[in-house]
Amino acid sequence: MKSVSKTINVKRLILYPLVTLLTVLMLGEYAFVFFKKDKLEEQKKYVDTLTKTLSEVIQKEIIVVTSATSMLETLLRQDHFATTNFNDWSREILSINENVSNLQLAPGGIVMDIFPLEGNEQAIGHDLLDDPKRSIGARIAVDSKELTFIGPVRLIQNNRLAVIARKPVFRYKNQQETFWGFTIALIYVEELMGDLLSGLDDLGLNYQLIGSNPDSLTQPIIAASIQPISNQAMQYPVLVPNGEWLLSVEYHFESLTDDFLYHGLILLMASLLSYFAFIYERKSQLQQIELVSLNQQLESLAYFDSLTGLRNRRSASDIAQELFHLAQHSQVPLIVAFLDIDYFKHVNDVHGHQAGDVILKALSNLCAKSCRESDIIARWGGEEFIVFLPYTDLDYALVFCETLRKNISMECFMYESEKIEFTISIGLSEVAPADKSIEDVIKRADEALYLAKKNGRNRCEVSLG
């Protein structure tokens, strides 16, 4: 697995707000030079720059929020569309997505799971595809197969205004792609935009942010200033998944002739935007670290045995195929050794399964210490282990296995003040010219292991091709 940084990129965290600060200050100073010649034009230029920046900041926040639906889909697929762990997933996702109010799963378009559930019980069973007030937006998401932003809409469960991110999820059955349902992230309007736009009134700015709701004849207002916006306001689109919002901003000052007031306003705006840039860049980096960490955990679960830390059967099989092709095409020797703990069931019956786990870990550690870096060791299943020994002839492999077997037989392991001794049986086989696949070699090693068991256990046997 690739190693990744687990820390904040301090250089980028400082540089991004600094560039934002300097850029806004330079634009403001440039506007001031020409202010007296054409005050209205300069005001428009500044508001144009501000509106662009706010639009980009809003878009960045939306990306951070909507990632929650993608994370929920990833975990859903990881559990093969079983939803029993939904609350655990949601709790983890919400911990790194502060603005998301709740998460939902809607298999077949019907809301069945909500976290947190308290206060949202009335939404359980809500059929999005059948509700006249929701169906158009829901079907747009399904037909386009894209994440779709709807809102703001007034929720049926608590009458609050919220923006809804719906991600349609599809799965393959019988080689056909079928609609499974939606992963949904719900964000209350005041939590999404309150901190971002509420301070603009005090800065002498009117603003209005219009959302998108295909289920309504009128476009809903997400946020607006105390004073209404005029038709002279600067307008910029805010691209959202499968749609578009519209942000409008303008001055409502009657006069800006005071140079000190103007420079103070520029500095305040630059500082405010620089602060926003710092907050959102830090949030983005923290989320990226969490996503990478989650992906690493999922990758580890897919390729490594959780008890012993060794490779699992799937991982070892993939590598073994490559070693087999190398052995066949380059005449490089390859030995397969099958290990099995003798009377392992007796250990579990007498000492308990926790003692059995201790024995499995102990054997794993001894094997790992004995193997070379080029050797591949894996837990094949239960008390069975397998070792692939590349660049190794049969004579050396026998010496290696006999040494390992004897060392284990002489060890005494402690579990809760009890001494536990155990032995292993080993079956070996080497790649032969007639072998068609690595499974042929593994099968012979398994037969040799069976022979070792039959001949009294605690021994090594070889099966030749």
UniProtKB/TrEMBL annotation:
The chain positions of domain CHASE read 110-248
State the needed cofactors, names only: Mg(2+)
Query: Which GO biological process categories is it annotated with?
Result: cell adhesion involved in single-species biofilm formation; negative regulation of bacterial-type flagellum-dependent cell motility; signal transduction
What GO cellular component term, any one, is given? Answer: plasma membrane
Extract the Pfam families matched here: CHASE (PF03924), GGDEF (PF00990)
Tell me where in this chain the GGDEF domain is found. 332-465
Looking up NCBIfam families in the UniProt record yields: GGDEF (TIGR00254)
From which domain of life does this come?
Answer: Bacteria
Q: Write down the PROSITE patterns for this protein, in alphabetical order.
A: CHASE, GGDEF
Record keyword Transcription present = no
Q: Which reaction does it catalyse?
A: 2 GTP = 3',3'-c-di-GMP + 2 diphosphate
Protein name per UniProt: diguanylate cyclase
Q: Which organism is it from?
A: Marinomonas polaris DSM 16579
Keywords of this protein's UniProt record, alphabetized?
Membrane, Transmembrane, Transmembrane helix
GO terms assigned for molecular function: diguanylate cyclase activity
EC number(s) stated in the UniProt entry for this protein: 2.7.7.65
Gene3D superfamilies in alphabetical order: 3.30.70.270, CHASE domain
Q: Which SUPFAM superfamilies match?
A: Nucleotide cyclase
TM region(s), chain numbering: 14-35, 260-280
Main site of residence? membrane
Annotated SMART domains: CHASE, GGDEF
Its localization reads: Membrane
